[in-house]
Amino acid sequence: MKKDLKIIFTGPVGAGKTTAINAISDTDTVSTNESSTDELRYRKNSTTVAMDYGIINMVDSKRVHLYGTPGQERFDFMWDILIQGGMGLVLLVDNARPDPLEDMQFFLQRFGDFIQRTRVAIGVTRMDISSTPRLNEYQTLLNDQARNIPLFEVDARVRQDVSILLQSLLHSLDHQKR
Amino acid sequence: MQARETTIEAPPVRIAALGIDERIRNSLRLFFHDSCKDRFQLVEEETADAVIIDLDHRKGVRLAREQRQLHPTTPVIVISRDPRETGSLISLLKPLKKRSLAKALLRAEAQAKEPQNLSSTLPSLQIATAPATPAEESGDDVVMEGVPSNSAGYQIARHLAEKDIQAFLGSTPDIDTKSAQQQANIRYDPDSFFQGKLRQITAMMKQKGQAVRLQFSDEAFIILYPDEEIAQINMSESRLGALSAVPISPGGLSFSFCDDLFSPDDVAADSLMRLDALLWKTALWASRGRIPYETDLHRAVALDRWPNLTRLLLLPNTLEIAALWAEQPHSLIETAAKLKIPQRYVFGFYSAVFALGLANTGETLKTLDYIPIAADTGEKQPASASWLSNWIPFFRSKNG
User: Fold this and answer.
1) What angle (nearest 5°) sits at the alpha carbon of residue B172, between those of residues B170 and B174?
2) Which chain A residues have a beta carbon less than 8 Å from that of B369?
3) Do B306 and A164 touch (CB under 8 A)?
4) Candidate from B306, B309, B400 with C-beta closest to A148
5) Element (H, E) at B399
6) pTM, whole model, 2 decimals?
């Protein structure tokens, strides 16, 4: 039976969701972007309003579908729709934002039910721009989580980084207690 | 039950495309995937084994010159509309034909495998701006599909990959856990290796808050910085490996604390390594697929937290083992049996996470519902798990 995988990429504006999906997708990604509003323009010229979509083609015509949520909260009406049927969540957190730890907490809470049913892997991006907070500060917050969540420094432009993040998610799903 | 060997496939050759627009890059990706069976992979310049440069791009010639200056041993394929004199670079004319592109890629692959030959045969780059007489293309067909797995290039690549893995994981076969002798053979004392000295010195450094300089013979040294948690390494990779792989005699390592103002700001980036990456690597070199003396082979292990694996040396099955221990504690023997991998892969990974202080054989297990499993790997998995298990090898082979 042919059955495809659906993985959701989420995180705040500018965290690299579109870039990460581009980095790992085998096909041209579909992105529905619009010009950023003033408060976002300093960060990026366009922002995703509906979704990003990419595909990883496997053997036997199997595919991994990658869906990126819009980062801005005003588009969060899309989130629940996008995650339907999803197998797992990749959360990207931009370390150069004012309060990335709070960002992580927000998204873990917002997608809490989904994560409870599936799994999440977290990539901290732009650590080359801002080296703090360090990963161990994220880890300290994650200690409160029921699970041991994969957390890595990630450059969303680098396919290998995104691949490792995604593989950690897939392996976590594979070994989860049922 | 003996675990079976995991087949080690030759890694894809990483190709960067410079001065080439996204549409052509996508075509290259498709060509690499469909025609080359993923033998090649499009990557960024920093991680490339070879590069393709479009000389007709306005920066093409400059990019080629820079490439040759900065990376003299990296094979370069140049493409252009008109024939040009490109010295020993691999030259192709537009429009690109599958056969000629495939041949050029195979040449680049061979050069990448033997860079010393490339550098010795490459004079300084001379790219003529005027068209030259086109080189005659051989009419031999190149069929990338079905490149035999016993071809010379494949064999060499596989041999090199196995050698790399052997340097870190050794070659010890699976042990019979009832044999005391075999159990003794897979143990080592981390404290007698550079790994252990490094751990002790790092602990002292963090307590004192001052950088530490480790001095070796001649001009080789390592400086550890506490705030940045990085190491400045002034020695070759092979020497660091040799230093890490053999026990250090008592008093065989001298170090001193640096003054407060010492900082790594002016240090060349390529001589810096993260402290966790250094500890991880030195542990793997010392362990060579063995485990610390006090390790109980049958005691369940959990990960306190995931290591930062995007910045650490990844060895076969690292992600699988990490995920298993993060989700469900297993003993070392159970882990190898469950994942059907050589025990030394599990032992090496354990030694590395042990060096970082992330291996937990006690406290965490209270909350992780440890249930010992039978060593028999023929257990029936829930349908969804089996289905996902079938996916992951494909994904790994595609994405490294």
Assistant:
1) 135
2) 177
3) no
4) B306
5) helix B383-399
6) 0.67
